[in-house]
Amino acid sequence: MQVQTQWVNTTDQQRLFVKLWGNEANPALVLVHGYPDNQEVWEPVIQHLIHDFYVISYDVRGAGQSSVPRNIRDYRLEQLSLDLDSVTHAVLGERCFHLAAHDWGSIQSWESVTEPKFRSRILSYSTISGPCLDHAAFLLRNSFKHQQKKLLKLLSKSWYIGVFQLPFLAPTAWHFLNAERWGKIVNDLERTQELPLNHNIQHDGKHGIALYRANFIPRLTQPRQRHAVCPVQAIVLKHDNFVSPDYIKELPKWVEDLSVVEVNANHWAILSQPQQIATHLSSYIQQLK
User: Fold this and answer.
1) CATH number at residue 74
2) pLDDT computed for residue 94 by the predictor
3) Domain membership of residue 260 as a residue range
């Protein structure tokens, strides 16, 4: 695949590693990866998009080849939104772009999608397995008051978030997982063999925990009213072990122009069903023209 690389400096002097795919004249599509991945997780999808889009992917701070901040607070959502702004301005200038994100990439991208300064700059957003933390907090509060059975269901899929708050145990655990062991876990979840491996998994897993520690408690205890500034497509993974579809049911409260599509897959559909994910991204963007 045709690819160029570029380094982008952030507002707090971190360095982000960016890849540019395809013809610059095509509509721009920015892809943001989740945890514990780096931007390579998108490459099976990109090969199906490269002929129709100018694709921009990047390693978020602490992942892949990007730099690793020293402080937990440097991973806060507000800074991650500034990172997206830095990348897109460095690569695209004032051009508008479409945005798609998976897992934690989706969580952090909601910060930009609900930020007024991105109105008319982000043309559309496709979210995969990553709710807005503010939206999630309101849902959890409501469930605590009125639907405690539903609350337990929501929390049962997110048990790992509590573990990630432990400062020493969680990062240390990643030393016992190499690319092959982690690959087997993902293969089993997706019921697919020989999916691409993340050879940087120990680094990405260890440092990416800071994303959770910097954001979950502040956002869940002090949620904000966050409304989308662009059309949103929610790609729901029907067998997702980590994210409940109940979060998607709440989106009409926050998204004026919402489309929902289901995929018969588990959490890493971007690896196990890349062509189908690419088709949903492409079709959605085409229909907005």
Assistant:
1) 3.40.50.1820
2) 94
3) 3-287
